[in-house]
């Protein structure tokens, strides 16, 4: 069942992305990266595949690669770490080190997928543009980079092609080159071509900002007056909707500049002036927070970071050590101890033995693990939307969607036959039923423990910090900790959150890979530390969360970190003076939280902060 899931996802994207037109052909999906026969093997789940390649396939059919949890080979991880280091040198403007590592990487990847060579040339073009080298040379490099995977796009109808956001970004970078060379008509054609592509092909909202934000920024530079203002604002709203800050500051600066120019020549309405003041405040809050945590966001670009990925060899080793058994006993009936030792050290990637080894670990027997099993991608999307509704406290919407999804899963007998599907149902129903007042916190905790036991039957008798956790398991533990926090059992709640943190920190991928829900857990953990009375430690954690949000470019939980700092300071004042007094520092942090919540349209936070502000307004200075 699990092996068919990745084919289900790709087939769904081939049709969904086309907006009900004829589905993408297999040739279009794999063009430039391999043969149709290789695509069939990828979809069959019979071969370990580089995440770089699978991500590109998913991006081409409009899907976000974060929906997949993936098992990686040691070789894949080492290549990925080098790409991340190259990008970090680029961000830090250490171009000599970047160039040296690029050359080494290019030499090593000569016999590998063309995507590696494309990466090298795109990064080379980027640092050359930053150092203001010859734009003709940069143009040639980008044209060659694009031709690795896409040919004849310029004379093709955007509707007829199948491109990933990475390929669309290269076209936008080419448009920048032509603008710099004052070939404005050609630059405009490229940008409008990309814009047209985005309108005729569906893409999940996490992918769109990665190329569209830069497209709108460039369109605002090549057009004039109200058209330019429209493009700048479109880019800003796109980023607000996805809680993303890549290219946000340049877009805000461009909008404010254009607004000033129009005001000087033609004048503005009251609404336009008000919009300008609000946007300036939003920009200034982000820049102030970035300054406080020493993170540069003025030229923030998308980071090519892996999400929800695990090392095969490490997963096996950690689980065997968690069970406390020898290699010989662990692989008994699967392979010899000598063969298994090579797998555990990462020198060999398991193929024939992979399914049985994953069963020993209690994981789905697939290299790519989808959000739900045995159902089409639209139901997987429904799961993502349910989780999003829960994060935003929209419990009625989550309950309605959950009832529909559960009915489908039970009808297809995909609950009793699939522990991970059953786990999701138990977890989600427990959260919703507690939120609407049907069960107590203790009943919720018992249901969550039952959910976790679907894949970790030994919980809570064993410490899970040495065990690898999939993101759904980590989220259940997050909610179990939350129930202890509701009973003010902060010590037990902190113990669970630190256990999850230690599980991540034990991984060789820690600091290189992002995991779904980790930012939420860190926000909850900081809040719990503060509630336990450790206000200074909680404030330190909140600042760490702000730094992490800004560094990774996602600000969904930025408001919570700002409010946490304000709340901690309020409690310190109460402790010292036995009453709450107004203080500029925490009032400023509260204002920042309000600005961000309004900017991202976080309804629950807006109402909560409004009530909190009302309480403060009743305090005498």
Structure description:
By secondary structure, the protein is mainly α. Helix 9 (165-180) runs parallel beside helix 11 (209-222), helix 11 (209-222) packs parallel to helix 13 and helix 25 (518-531) runs parallel beside helix 27 (558-577). The chain folds into four domains: 65-292, Serine Threonine Protein Phosphatase 5, Tetratricopeptide repeat; 312-369, lambda repressor-like DNA-binding domains (434 Repressor (Amino-terminal Domain)); 375-496, Serine Threonine Protein Phosphatase 5, Tetratricopeptide repeat; 517-621, no CATH class. The protein has helices at residues 5-16, 26-30, 36-44, 51-60, 74-91, 95-108, 114-130, 135-147, 165-180, 184-200, 209-222, 225-241, 248-265, 270-292, 312-323, 327-330, 337-345, 354-361, 377-391, 395-411, 419-435, 441-452, 471-486, 490-505, 518-531, 535-552, 558-577, 584-599, 603-617; strands spanning 69-72, 309-311, 368-369. A three-stranded mixed beta sheet has the order 2-1-3. The mean pLDDT is 92. It is 66% helix and 1% strand. It is globular.
């Amino acid at each position: 069942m699990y092996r068919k899931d990745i084919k289900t996802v790709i087939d769904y994207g081939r049709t969904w992305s086309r907006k009900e037109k004829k589905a993408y052909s297999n040739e279009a999906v794999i063009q430039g990266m391999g043969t149709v026969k290789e695509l069939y093997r990828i979809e069959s789940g019979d071969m370990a595949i580089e995440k770089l390649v699978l991500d590109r396939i998913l991006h081409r059919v409009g899907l976000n690669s974060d929906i997949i949890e993936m098992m990686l080979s040691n070789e894949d991880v080492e290549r990925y770490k080098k790409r991340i280091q190259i990008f970090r040198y680029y961000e830090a403007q250490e171009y000599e080190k970047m160039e040296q590592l690029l050359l080494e990487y290019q030499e090593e990847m000569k016999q590998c997928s063309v995507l590696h060579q494309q990466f090298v040339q795109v990064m080379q073009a980027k640092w050359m543009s930053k150092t203001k080298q010859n734009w003709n040379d940069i143009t040639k490099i980008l044209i060659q980079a694009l031709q690795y995977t896409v040919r004849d796009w310029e004379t093709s109808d955007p509707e007829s092609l199948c491109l990933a956001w990475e390929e669309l970004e290269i076209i936008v970078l080419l448009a920048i080159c032509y603008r710099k060379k004052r070939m404005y008509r050609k630059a405009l054609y490229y940008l409008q071509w990309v814009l047209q592509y985005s309108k005729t092909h569906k893409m999940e909202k996490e992918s769109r900002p990665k190329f569209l934000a830069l497209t709108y920024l460039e369109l605002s530079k090549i057009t004039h007056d109200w058209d330019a203002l429209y493009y700048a604002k479109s880019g800003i709203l796109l980023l607000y909707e996805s809680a993303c800050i890549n290219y946000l500051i340049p877009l805000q600066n461009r909008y404010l500049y254009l607004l000033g120019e129009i005001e000087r020549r033609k004048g503005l309405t009251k609404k336009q002036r008000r919009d300008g003041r609000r946007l300036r405040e939003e920009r200034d809050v982000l820049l102030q927070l970035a300054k406080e945590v020493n993170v540069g966001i003025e030229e923030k670009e998308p980071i090519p970071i892996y999400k929800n990925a695990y090392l095969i060899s490490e997963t096996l080793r950690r689980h065997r050590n968690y069970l406390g058994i020898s290699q010989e006993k662990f692989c008994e009936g699967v392979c010899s101890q000598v063969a298994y030792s090579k797998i555990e050290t990462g020198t060999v990637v398991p193929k024939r033995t992979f399914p049985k080894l994953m069963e020993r670990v209690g994981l789905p027997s697939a290299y790519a693990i989808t959000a739900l099993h045995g159902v089409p991608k639209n139901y997987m999307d429904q799961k993502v939307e349910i989780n999003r509704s829960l994060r935003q406290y929209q419990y009625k919407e989550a309950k309605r969607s959950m009832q529909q999804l559960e009915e489908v899963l039970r009808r297809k007998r995909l609950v009793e036959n699939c522990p991970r599907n059953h786990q999701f149902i138990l977890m989600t129903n427990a959260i919703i039923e507690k939120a609407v007042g049907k069960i107590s916190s203790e009943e919720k905790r018992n249901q969550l423990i039952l959910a976790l036991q679907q894949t970790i039957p030994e919980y809570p008798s064993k410490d899970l910090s040495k065990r690898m956790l999939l993101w759904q398991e980590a989220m259940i533990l997050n909610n179990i900790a939350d129930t202890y926090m509701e009973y003010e059992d902060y010590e037990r709640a902190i113990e669970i959150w630190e256990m999850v943190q230690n599980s991540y920190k034990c991984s060789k991928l820690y600091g290189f890979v992002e995991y779904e829900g980790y930012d939420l857990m860190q926000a909850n953990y900081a809040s719990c530390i503060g509630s336990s009375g450790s206000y200074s430690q909680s404030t330190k954690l909140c600042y760490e969360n702000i730094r992490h949000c800004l560094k990774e470019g996602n600000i969904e939980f930025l408001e919570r970190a700002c409010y946490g700092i304000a709340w901690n300071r309020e409690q310190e004042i109460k402790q010292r003076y036995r009453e709450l007094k107004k203080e500029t520092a925490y009032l400023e942090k509260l204002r920042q939280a309000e600005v961000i919540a309004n900017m991202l349209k976080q309804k629950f936070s807006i109402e909560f902060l409004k009530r909190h502000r009302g309480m403060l307004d009743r305090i005498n200075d």
